[in-house]
Amino acid sequence: MILGLTGSIAAGKSTVARVLLDKGAALVDADQVSRDLTGPGSPVLSRLVERFGSEILDSEGRLDRANLALRVFNSAEDLEALNEITHPAIWKESLSRLAELGARHPVVVLMAPLLLEHGAEAIVDQVWVVDLPLEEQLRRLIDRDGLSRDEALRRIRSQMPAAEKAARADVLIDNSGTLEQTRALVDTAWEDWVTPLLEIY
What we know:
The chain has 201 residues and is of the alpha/beta class. It has nine helices and five strands; from the N terminus they run E-H-E-H-H-H-H-E-E-H-H-H-E-H. Helix 1 (13-22) packs across helix 9, helix 3 (43-52) packs antiparallel against helix 5 and helix 6 packs across helix 7.
């Protein structure tokens, strides 16, 4: 069984993923796949440097993600170029890891911020969306990444609206409470949505 886990930036996807891991699920993290595919000397990194220039590298030749993010979130054209270069490779590798883990684990979570944008409902059994009110999302994003409010808003608005993601969810997790409250919501959703199917299989 594949659970697709998504949500807007800074909504708390990783928090929910950790709870699911505690319940025995395996995880494919598309952001980690992206980091793995853009290491020094990788074909994807070479294409990024060709498109954006060597200024996106740090002093050791690694991708400076903060620098690249500042650039692409201020230009729709640059963001589109980034997605065209990285996303096919990310999805190919993510699917490979899903197949590998799925052969050994009854439940695998595919965590991806752009899960719905890429039509991944077709490859997952359930869509789980982590939701958070906009003001709290902004606060967390500003605190986490050191952004201005305008920068944080641009990043949020570059993604599918949270309301649309929520409307397409099988399971909606409200992450505006405490960690214990979020864990309780995930526990309930697991019992309602996952356990019955595991018993069938």
